[in-house]
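Protein Record: Sequence and Backbone Structure Tokens
======================================================
Scope: a single protein chain, as residues and as a discrete description of its fold.
Tokens: labelled as protein backbone structure tokens, with as many entries as the chain has residues.
Position: the record begins directly beneath this header, with no further notes in between.
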Amino acid sequence: RYVGSVVAVGGDTVEVTDGAVKINGYTMIETNIFYETYPLEGFTQYPLTLAQDECFILADQRKGTEDSRFFGPVKYSELEGTVISVIRRNNL
């Protein structure tokens, strides 16, 4: 299983370049992501326009992670649920 954020949905065009994510030509401003987002060489090609039944998922930890930059768009039928709350604790 995998947890990530849906950043684009069917019909959107996604581009990942030089540390930024653009959706439909607009740069995403992510105040809770502390790493720049770079494309992964040899995987997803940009710009990428999503089919109506697809979404683009990015992990919060952008370095060393596999997300739609690696495995491409995800079909809605492959989604299993929605995270509704996150609890973070120290010293677990």
Remarks:
- The longest helix spans residues 68-71.
- DSSP finds one helix and seven strands in the chain.
- Helices lie at 68-71.
